[in-house]
Structures are given as structure tokens and as C-alpha cells.
Amino acid sequence: MKQKNIYIIDFDSTFTQVEALDELARISLKKHPDKEAIFKKIEDLTNLAMEGKLSFSESLAQRVKLLDASEDHLKQLITRLKKKVSMSFSRNAAFFKKHADQVLIVSGGFKEFITPVVSQYHIKKENIYANTFVTTGDGKIIDYDHANPLSEEGGKVKLMQQLNLEGDLYGIGDGYSDFQLRESGMIKKFFAFTENISRESIVSRADHVTPSFDEFLYVNNLPRAISYPKNRILCLIIGEVPAESIALLKKDGFSIRHLSTFEDKYVKDVHMVLMGEGEKMDPAKLQLAVKLKTVGYLGSAKSNLDVQTCTDMGIVIFEDSKHNPRNANFIPKRMMDFMNTGTTYLSSNFPNLQLPRFNQSHRLIHVHHNVPGIMAQINTVFAKHSINIVGQFLMTNATIGYVITDINAEYDKDVFKALKKIDQTIKFRVLY
């Protein structure tokens, strides 16, 4: 009989974007005259423990003493943490609901603030393992339960030994205490989570580096909100491009390379290109860029980019022909909207289509030459595979037909092969 998979997930800088004790310090010490020095001390203690340079128990004891916090401060912290859940965890809430029996939160943090945050994601309270505070009668935090194994050095290993779980265990986290589970041999694989912070001492020893929870779900063939992790989508920045443009694309999770020219080694793997004004793209290289989905151009693209070839290949162009100062942000945002939702609004070579997003569905994009009968063929494929269509949108121009279809999440993946085989198809992809 196949072993059950169990997913052991860290909280600080993994499930959430921040270290909760650091945030609690910023709340509790807000009016303290030496707050900046204390903040720095707490952050240093956190990092030393996460990198394995200071025992976790010593780091925790020193941080709690420095906090000067109360239960009222905890309430403020919980409100803040609920807004700081890591984006890739937030968008995969459906996974936690479906796999509630298999997900454990194991953290050196504290139940008082962890439970209210992760419970929103259908994670069972009995599957949350963390430390607990000790308070006085008036609610002041003075200590923590030292009998809890998670308060000790190697605490996660000690806890797992006590639980003696049956199944294949997978660990996801950003720090040394997470890696210790792999080092102990108690888990099958350790995934270093780097969406919020990347610690080289941990990354170098991980079984797999996962820049997002989407990546973890993808490599383990688990249900997920988006079909292809953004960290696997290569975006080339070519020439002089404002830092704010690059920051937008990087923040959205794409894999960024900033180059002076369109280097040969990237041509066959690139998905997105953002070009600075005056940059030219070699038509021969463009024709080899078979995965390229969209080009953003900070200027007029007409004399620098073969627009007709882009159109024939199903590549959507967004350009700044009027040199609007806002377009340092506007063009990258249009590219992001296209990659994230399929929206082609204000494209210079594709039918303009703005789209709502449907929950609990997958979005399929079909680009084809604008000839009669294609729509009928697409829907015949869906009918043959008993696909339930949630929503469908079609826009055309003189040469291109652009169809977006939202379907129920349960389907036979052979439908993809059938859609790709339709005559006059230029490009097909599953968006999410």
C-alpha cells in the first residue's frame, strides 16, 4: 500500500513573509527610546539561529526577554500577520483544504499568533506544533514553556521523534532548524523555501530549492492554483530599463536576467522580453524563440522588432510609442497582466481582450490564424473530452484569433494534445 505523504511546513519567513517575533518587537517597543538598537539585536539573534550559528534555545530565550510584549501587542501582531501570508501560500488555499489531514505547521514560533493565521487556511489546530508563551495575570509576556521540545536546540527533530509519524515526510522551510529534519534522516526531502529570504548555508544543502509554494506543488505533481510556477518563467531585460520596471517583474515572481544583448543561450528558453528604447531584436533569433509569449518595448517597436513575425508566432507586443513617462511601470504591468490572466488590453498587435478571473477553474489560451471554423473545432474537442466550460472569450483582428476558455479543474490532460493539433493553431498554453 502506498505511503501517505505528510507536509511539514515552517511558519516564519515561509508561511508568512516575515519573522513574527521581529514584527512583535516593532509593535511592543514602538515607544522605547532604544528601539532601533533592540530591533537590530533581535533580528541578529533570529538570523544567527536560522543560519545555524547560534543554538535555537539561546536565541529564543534572548529574544523573548527583549520583547517587553503583552497580549494586547499579540492582537496587533495577528492582524499584521494575516496580511503578510506569503503570496504563493495564499493563492493555494484550496490545497490546504483538500489535504488538511496531511499538512503540519511545525515552528519555533508561538501558537498564540500562528494558530489564528494558519487556521484561515483550513489547517487543523491539532496539526499546529509551536511554542507557547507564559504570561502574568495582567497579560504581560514574561517567558515561554521550556518543557516544549520546540523551545530547544534541534527541537523539530525531537518533536518528530515523539510523534513517530507514519508516511513519507517532506519538509518546507527557510532555516537551519528545518534542514535539521533532513540531516536527521527523518524526512524524505527538504525543500528550501526562498520566496521571502534565501540563506546560502541552507540553500546549498537542500534537496530542492523552491522559490514559491507553487514550485513545491509543481515538482510533486500536486493540485495548485497556477499550472506553471512563475519562477520557471524566464524574463529577459535587454538594454537600459528603469530599475522600477525590473523590480515590478521580479516582485511578481518571474526569473529575471538583465543583459546588454539578446544572448544566444537564452533564445530557446525565454518566455518574456522587456527591451529598452533603441534596442533591436535579430529576426533570426526571434524565430528561434519558440517559448516567447510577450515582448514589452519602452519606445516604438516598429523599426526595432519584426512585428509581423511576432504576430505569426503568437507573441503579444506592448510598446511605448508615445514615450509616456508612466510607461516604465505601465508596460511591465501589461506584460504581467497578460502572463497572469491572458489580458491583451492595449497590445499593439493582438485583439484587445480584458478578462475576469474565475475561481476553481483552469484558464486555457488558444491562439490561431483567423480563419472560419476554428471556434467550432475547439468546442468539439471540449465536448469529446466531456469538459465543462465555465467561461469563454473570443477576440479577433485581421490575422489572429484569440480564445480564452475557463474550464473546471478536473479534466483529462489529453485535451491539451487535441487542442494543439487543431489546424491553424499558433500557440496553446494553460495559464492557471
Automatic annotation (TrEMBL):
Annotated metabolic or biological route of this protein:
Amino-acid biosynthesis; L-serine biosynthesis; L-serine from 3-phospho-D-glycerate: step 3/3
Coiled coil, from the record: none
InterPro entries in the record: ACT-like_dom_sf, ACT_dom, AHAS_small-like_ACT, HAD-like_SerB, HAD-like_sf, HAD_sf
Q: What reaction gets catalysed by this protein?
A: O-phospho-L-serine + H2O = L-serine + phosphate; O-phospho-D-serine + H2O = D-serine + phosphate
Q: Name one Pfam family in it.
A: HAD
Q: Which cofactor does it need?
A: Mg(2+)
Q: Which residues form the ACT domain?
A: 363-432
Q: Which UniProt keywords apply?
A: Amino-acid biosynthesis, Hydrolase, Magnesium, Metal-binding, Serine biosynthesis
| Keyword Cell inner membrane included in the entry's annotation | no
Extract one GO BP annotation from the record: L-serine biosynthetic process
Q: Which GO terms describe its cellular component?
A: cytoplasm
Task: Give the highest taxon in the source lineage.
Answer: Bacteria
A molecular function (GO) term:
magnesium ion binding
* E.C. numbers: 3.1.3.3
The yes or no answer to whether the keyword DNA damage is present is no
Tell me the protein's name: phosphoserine phosphatase
Q: Which organism is it from?
A: Pedobacter hartonius
